[in-house]
Amino acid sequence: MVNLDKYSSIFIANWKLNGNSSFLKDYYEKLKVNSNNCTIICSSSIYLKSLKGNNENLFCGAQDVSFYKKGAYTGELSASMLKDNNIDFCLVGHSERRQYFAETNNIVNIKTTNLIEENIIPVICIGETLEQKENKLTEEVLSTQIKDSIPNTANHQNVLIAYEPVWAIGTGLTPTLSEINQVHELIKNFDQKYINFKVLYGGSVKSSNSKEINELRYVDGCLIGGASLKVDEFNTIIS
Ligand code: PEP
């Protein structure tokens, strides 16, 4: 398992349903990994194997994993298959999976358990919708997501949490810096057992705001969608 304690910050690129072989080749030629940071590229599963270079601080992450371990589940990819292909990280519970693929906290919990068993670090995504935020439900929503999606086997070395307000993903909107810091502090303090968990921020991170977000006391890195598709932009973010 990757030693997370080694890194001052963690940056994850979530390419979603984008990229092809020539995009990948060009991206990897231009990517400049900073050795103080852990950089993780989450491409579509079919490209995962072609990503593994020889930089020890650069890792591959899957964007999803099957709920099932094996069997008659056509089209699925198990945690053990990811491990067999040297994948070190996997996103779980991304808001797009919760929204479009009916991923519940219970499903996230089981996927997380399966990944931990295979020594793959799950990146558990949590976040409130705009309606929930406006109704002052952020704390309640996040605490339920944490309680129900994080299994007892999780600890600060085998799991990452990503706080991604749903309304900030792909919209260009972000919470204020103090809101981000406060929510991250809250997440780490829901229970004493989360105090040392690394919590990444995601939602419209770009080169113009990444530095100030990443410097916040309770922020341990960023999860980046749209801006990670432009390698120069991503290089600035991770530099
Ligand atoms: C994401 O997909 O997790 C994300 C944060 O996207 P974006 O950076 O585009 O808001």
Shape: globular
**How much of the polypeptide forms β-strand, as a percent range?**
15-25%
Q: Largest sheet, described in full?
A: 8 strands, parallel, barrel
Bound molecules: phosphoenolpyruvate
CATH homologous superfamily label: Aldolase class I
Q: Whole-number average pLDDT? A: 95
CATH class: Alpha Beta
CATH topology: TIM Barrel
Report what the structure shows.
The protein has 239 residues and is an alpha/beta fold. It has one domain (4-238): TIM Barrel. The protein has 10 helices and 8 strands. The protein has helices spanning 21-30, 48-51, 79-84, 95-100, 105-117, 130-134, 138-149, 177-189, 210-214, 231-238, and strands at 9-14, 37-42, 58-62, 89-92, 121-126, 160-163, 198-202, 221-224. It has an 8-stranded parallel beta barrel with strand order 1-2-3-4-5-6-7-8, surrounded by 4 helices. Helix 5 crosses helix 7. It is globular. Phosphoenolpyruvate is lined by residues 14, 164, 169-170, 202-205, 223-227.
Brief account:
With 239 residues, this protein is of the alpha/beta class.
Structural features:
alpha/beta; 10 helices; TIM Barrel; single chain; 239 residues; binds phosphoenolpyruvate; 34% helix
Element layout with pairings:
Layout: E1 9-14, H1 21-30, E2 37-42, H2 48-51, E3 58-62, H3 79-84, E4 89-92, H4 95-100, H5 105-117, E5 121-126, H6 130-134, H7 138-149, E6 160-163, H8 177-189, E7 198-202, H9 210-214, E8 221-224, H10 231-238
Parallel strand pairs: 1-2, 1-8, 2-3, 3-4, 4-5, 5-6, 6-7, 7-8
Bound molecules: phosphoenolpyruvate.
